[in-house]
Specification:
By secondary structure, the protein is of the alpha/beta class. It contains 24 helices and 13 strands. The strands form 3 sheets. A 6-stranded mixed sheet has the order 5-10-11-3-12-13, sandwiched between helices. A 4-stranded antiparallel sheet has the order 6-7-9-8, with helices on both faces. A 3-stranded antiparallel sheet has the order 2-1-4, with helices on one face. The radius of gyration is 38 Å and the shape is elongated. 24% of the residues are buried. About 2% of the residues have low confidence.
């Protein structure tokens, strides 16, 4: 077991360094984002990396280390090109790259084999046809073409002689002398396309597509400026160093809007010095910069809308490649989503410096696509305007094409048969070679898929855990054994890419099962902020899994757990009732970009009575199975811990009929927090929760504590405003 970890000269740890001292079996680390939590997890997962050459540790290293952090999240789950389909596993990314390359080679060789097989069929047909008499061969070639791809060409240029072999053959002899070996012929595909244009009475001129003009670009300079207030006030430097200008500005607006005389957070008096300092900090320069930022945001969004509007206008043009255009539009949407995220961060913290992309590469691609399409437009327009001359040229070209194709003299006929037979043999050899090569590629693909299946867990393993915790938002279904897809509660599959929350949750489930399926002893588990992008229902499942992991660590051969987070609620949940003899608490702090570590004698993130009330009423409109536990903890803390009153005694103030209902609430609350296999994972009907919210309020009323109840509810409502 590790006893000490010292981080020095890396990330926000300076040369002097900071140390996690006297590590215990269970270690909770709390720190805000950017204070070094991820650096700790990266060091433990890769201690030999040259980046950590100045870091050190004491104690014995475990035989197996499991680290969950952002790097793990990026490597475990891999999106396929098909939306909604993904693979799962610690080496999935590596295997997916190999698989993608092999599948591309396989597809290419399948196509080549299919082409060889098609050519072989045609060659064999030709071989049989060559055995007919010369005139029959000529007639056959004509009939073959009139029934095949050139039928419309010969029909439009009036080639043929009313289905009479003899008449057609005489005409053939009459004009075949015009062609020589040096006669240049139009390509078959061009012949077909040109005839379709020139002889089509319904075709008209087509307007060129205008290229996208991106000269009116928005100004992005303000995004690269750090917008801060003046540092002349007492606390100006503190606000700037903590990058909380946006948060303080919002607080200032709340104070002014509500004429508050006390700080809404610490309830200290707001003196004239403080109010004047806030006003001076956010001076006219600051306000001007914010207005400039708002204007630039609007300009950017208008620019994005213009680009998308232009794409939609040209999308259905007959000469534009819609598929390529859609791909480019998706690239723009992806870049815009990242830009919007950065803009939101900038609006929240104006001191942030961000860089935005204006889709230059994508716009260039679209304009290249438009210019390529305009070549086809101009070609068609030219043929349309001079169709009379083009028709005469194409009539001649069609005749010459047919003559050149079938003009075999008798002396050359036998030679032609031999050539076609050799061609058939060559095609058969090529097909056999391709078949053998394809079999080898398939064998390698199956070997990789077997590895992918070996590193993943079955969908049933993951779904069993989801059902156990009453999670019904989606299930995980296998696709082709090696891949997975999410199925919504409605039964519909997820047809778009996975959200960040879904990726985080699925990856954590995989991580959890990796631990439970591993039989090695002396395991070290390191988990860094596993709840990013998670909604409340999934956060509950993750919290429960971690508490179970801590509880079952002995049976799972886990010697040590190190868990870090920036979320106070999550920290409170997983550390609640932790064995103090086996648990250490650490606090990361960052001052002037330097991180320090403090070992705490007790949990630095204490359970908040106010937070319990907030949770209870946040869930009021959409109650979850955690509500009973919240009710119980409020009643215990207020009446039992503070008032020295047993929960059962609270029922004495009710009338006999009401006692039955009130008593059911206590049982309901106890069940909600203790009966794991039954009620906790079964969603209660909404009406039941509404009924118990009312009873919960009456308990305070009957026990002459209604004022306290009203005060706590009002405090919650005031915060929402």
């Amino acid at each position: 077991m590790l006893t000490n970890i010292k981080l020095s000269n890396v990330a926000s740890f300076n040369d002097e360094g900071a140390e996690l001292e006297n590590l215990n079996e269970i270690n909770f680390i709390y720190g805000n984002n950017g204070t070094g939590k991820t650096t700790i997890s990266n060091y433990i997962s890769n201690m030999d990396n040259v980046r950590f050459k100045n870091c050190s540790n004491k104690g014995s290293l475990p035989s197996k280390v499991f680290v969950y952090n952002q790097k793990y999240l990026e490597e475990v789950i891999v999106d396929k090109k098909i939306p909604g389909i993904f693979s799962l596993g610690e080496d999935a990314n590596q295997y997916e790259e190999q698989l993608e390359s092999l599948e591309y080679i396989l597809e290419k060789n399948f196509s080549q084999k299919e082409s060889l097989e098609n050519n072989l069929v045609i060659a064999k047909e030709e071989l049989n046809d060559k055995n007919e008499e010369y005139i029959e061969y000529i007639w056959h070639m004509y009939r073959k073409n009139t029934e095949g791809v050139l039928h419309s060409v010969y029909d439009k240029v009036s080639l043929g002689a009313k289905n009479s072999k003899s008449v057609f053959f005489k005409e053939f002899l009459a004009y075949k002398s015009e062609i020589t070996d040096d006669t240049e012929l139009i390509e078959k595909s061009k012949l077909i396309s040109d005839v379709d244009i020139v002889f089509n009475e319904n075709i008209s001129e087509v307007n060129e597509i205008d290229v996208i003009n991106d000269t009116e670009k928005p100004s992005l300079g303000i995004f690269q400026e750090s917008i801060v207030g003046t540092n002349d006030v007492d606390f100006g430097e503190l606000i700037s160093s903590l990058h909380i200008d946006g948060w303080v500005s919002t607080g200032k607006d709340v104070i002014e809007k509500n004429n508050l005389e006390k700080c809404p957070l610490c309830q200290q008096d707001l003196t004239e010095n403080i109010l004047e300092g806030l006003a001076n900090y956010f001076d006219d320069n600051y306000k001007y910069s914010i207005e400039k930022l708002d204007k630039s945001i609007r300009e950017y969004k208008d620019f994005y809308k213009r680009i998308i509007s232009t794409i939609n206008e040209i999308k259905n043009h007959e000469f534009i490649d819609d598929q390529k255009l859609i791909i480019i539009a998706n690239e723009i949407d992806i870049v815009n989503a990242e830009n919007e995220k950065k803009i939101s961060e900038k609006e929240l913290n104006p001191s942030n410096v961000i860089n935005l992309s204006l889709f230059q590469n994508s716009i260039s691609k679209i304009n290249d696509l438009i210019m390529e399409s305009n070549l086809s437009v101009n070609d068609q327009n030219e043929k349309f305007r001079d169709r009379k001359n083009y028709r005469e040229q194409l009539k001649y070209q069609a005749k010459m094409y047919f003559i050149k194709e079938v003009n075999f003299e008798t002396s050359k006929y036998d030679s032609g048969i031999r050539k076609i037979r050799n061609k058939c043999n060559g095609l058969e050899r090529g097909i056999n070679t391709k078949t053998e090569y394809i079999d080898n590629i398939n064998k390698r693909i199956n070997e990789i898929k077997t590895k992918i299946e070996g590193i993943g867990f079955t969908a049933e393993d993951l779904n069993k855990q989801l059902r156990l915790f009453g999670f019904h938002n989606f299930t995980i279904n296998p696709v082709d054994n090696s891949y997975y897809q999410l199925i919504r509660e409605s039964g519909e599959p997820v047809l778009n890419t996975l959200s960040e929350g879904e990726k985080t949750f699925i990856t954590f489930l995989y991580f959890y099962h990796s631990i439970t399926k591993n039989n090695e002893k002396n395991k070290l588990i390191v988990i860094d902020d596993p709840i990013s992008s998670l909604d409340s229902s999934i956060l509950y499942v993750v919290s429960s899994l971690l508490k179970k992991l801590i509880k079952d660590k002995a049976s799972l051969n886990i010697s040590q757990i190190i868990l870090s987070t920036h979320n106070t609620y999550f920290h409170k949940e997983i550390s609640y009732k932790s064995d103090i003899n086996l648990t250490n608490f650490y606090l990361l702090r960052k001052n002037k970009s330097i991180t320090s570590i403090m070992k705490c004698e007790k949990n630095p993130v204490t359970s908040s009575y106010d937070l319990l009330w907030k949770e209870l009423y946040e869930y009021k409109d959409f109650p979850t199975s955690s509500v009973p536990n919240i009710m119980r903890r409020i009643l215990e803390e207020y009446f039992t811990f503070l008032g020295n009153t047993k929960l059962d005694d609270l029922m004495l103030e009710f009338d006999p009929d009401e006692q039955i209902i009130a008593d059911s609430l206590i049982k309901f609350a106890h069940d909600g927090s203790h009966r794991i296999k039954e009620d906790l994972f079964v969603e209660q009907p909404y009406q039941i929760y509404e009924k118990y919210y009312n009873i919960f309020e009456k308990i305070f009323e009957k026990n002459r504590q209604k004022n306290h109840f009203d005060m706590m509810v009002k405090r919650y409502l005031d915060e929402q405003e």
